[in-house]
Amino acid sequence: MMKKTVLTGLIICGMVIGANAQTGSAGKNDPKAKVVLDGVSKKFKSLKSVIANFVLKVEGANNSVNDTKKGSVYVKGPKYKVIMDGQEIISDNKTSWTYAKDVNEVTISNVDQSNSSMTPAKIFTNFYDNDFLYRLNGETTEKGKVLQNIELTPTDKSKNFFKVLVDVDKKNQTLARMKVFEKNGNRYTYEILNFQPNGAVKDDLFTFDAKKYPGVEVVDLR
How far apart (Å, rounded) are the C-alpha atoms in residues 85 and 66? Predict the structure, then answer.
């Protein structure tokens, strides 16, 4: 069974995309794909906040794992909170808290302020510019929505994944789905079920209040 830390990392890092960005690949990007991705980035940056519900589907190599987890993400500027099946991941852009319900434990750490770090906010913005080559593979229609299909390949070939497929809702210019293909055969699909722009999100949502978790064990790594 896949480690819990892998699933946690996928959500925090927007499906593990783009840590340690590298530039200077010899390949060329598709300008049509860039127009689509830039549209998603521009749309997100214009919003005060975002609330989204998602499904994370995990498929192991040779059908070794088949698991589905539901969750919600709240984003306000660089701040975010992810709630997923007994886990909460919170950041106020200075401090991050990862809470595990099954052991009633929260791990506290400082936020990595380098440009190489990835967060749920960055998944909707221009994470692609320095980390990937990208091309538009056409359009498909699902449930009445036209999706623009983009394939990304990492410029850093030492990554543990070799391909990412991104589907963008053409009408709303929002991310609809992302699928990561690892070299070991594992696949992770991150699908947005609904996307609420400018929802009511209070700032206290982005801090961890230990008083609401009686008996919680605190692991402070700062």
Answer: 16
